Amino acid sequence: MANSSSVSEFLLLAFADTRELQLLHFALFLGIYLAALLGNGLILTAVACDHRLHTPMYFFLLNLALLDLGSISTILPKAMANALWDTKAISYEGCAAQILFSLFLVVAEYSLLTIMAYDRYVAICKPLHYGSLLGSRACAQMAAAAWGSGFLNAVLHTASTFSLPLCQGNAVDQFFCEIPQILKLSCSDAYLREAGLVVFSVSVLFGCSVFIVISYIQIFRVVLWIPSEQGQHKAFSTCLPHLAVVSLFTSTAMFAYLKPSSISSPYLDLVVAVLYSVVPPAVNPLIYSMRNQELRDAVRTLVEYTILQRIHLQ
User: Which residues is 11 bridged to in the sheet?
Assistant: First the structure.
């Protein structure tokens, strides 16, 4: 990239200055990271191994778990390494890669959440057409479109951002690299080009949000007309986890980028950044398994089988 000669590395924002707090943050992040690996790994394995879960809903859930694993792995390992080794530095290339992959995974995830809303809409509002509208080929194409749109978006934004000359130092006011913080270091009016791309991307994401809201309005209208309480409970048990994940994803991100500047502070910005970048990938498996009996049974069977295999080997 054209700018690599002017800045060779960036300095990330540290969570703490004292060594004891740095090690505490390392331990906290390590616990969150291991929980995310375990939860998403169990979902991946359970969906892949249990034939009862080979349905469109769980196929999309498998993709969501993959994206969550990638998302948290893009950010947390570097933050943990910096806390452990008492450093703030990240290379220019490393920063560009972090922005590329984090943006790719976030956009792909929100696209996938939109597709999952469509899946729930068809399953509840048009059950007779579910097999024809969400066949295996259609599901694969929609998942590929989500991943592809995320990658294209990330490439365009990353290339645009890192083509800008930087003259405001190399200190990033965040514990990981993200586009708004890099734009603050730009000394060129060319940042307006990237701002235009950001506005376009936000508009697309807003369109996805409108689609999700309309889908759930239709879903709730149909569910409330279901005569049996058991039928309503079953319908809600497949919808509410997805709605909770979408709400967590959007609310934390909106608060991070739309909060008034009057309440902004480095500490608050760090906490909010953790909420929208680290917490969702770690808690999504818990949210999906809380009200989903099929998934809980599959995970329980997987764990029991693993334990029995180890006992047998001993």
Answer: 89, 171
Q: How far apart are CA 109 and CA 103, in angstroms?
A: 10
Helix (H) or strand (E) holding 231: helix 229-258
Query: Who's near 232: CB < 8 A, 6+ residues apart?
Result: 223, 224, 226
Spell out the SS3 assignment of 107-155. Answer: HHHHHHHHHHHHHHHHHHHCHHHHHHHCCHHHHHHHHHHHHHHHHHHHH
How far is 175 from 153, CA to CA, in rounded Å? 23
Task: For the full predicted model, state whether its pTM sits above 0.85.
Answer: yes
Which residue do the tokens 């331990």 mark?
A: 27
Q: How far apart are CA 23 and CA 28, in angstroms?
A: 9
Q: How far apart are CA 61 and CA 134, in angstroms?
A: 14
**171 beta partners:** 11
Tokens 């500490």 locate to: 267
> What stretches of 14-129 show up as alpha helix (H) in DSSP?
19-49, 56-85, 92-125
Encode burial over 253-281: b for 16+ CB neighbours within 10 A, e otherwise: beebeeeeeeeeeeeebbebbbbbbbbbb
Q: Is the pLDDT of residue 265 over 80?
A: no
**SS3 call for 166:** strand
The two structure tokens encoding residue 63? 């993709």
Q: How far apart are the first and last CA of the chain?
A: 54
Q: What is the pLDDT of residue 296?
A: 82
62: how many CB neighbours lie within 10 A of its CB? 20
Instruction: Please give the residue that has the higher pLDDT: either 35 or 205.
Output: 35
| pLDDT tens profile 43-68 | 999 999 888 889 999 999 999 999 99
**Residues 291-302 as b or e (16 or more Cβ within 10 Å = b):** bbebbeebbeeb
* pLDDT, mean of residues 181-192: 74
User: Residues 17, 178: contact at Cβ < 8 Å?
Assistant: no
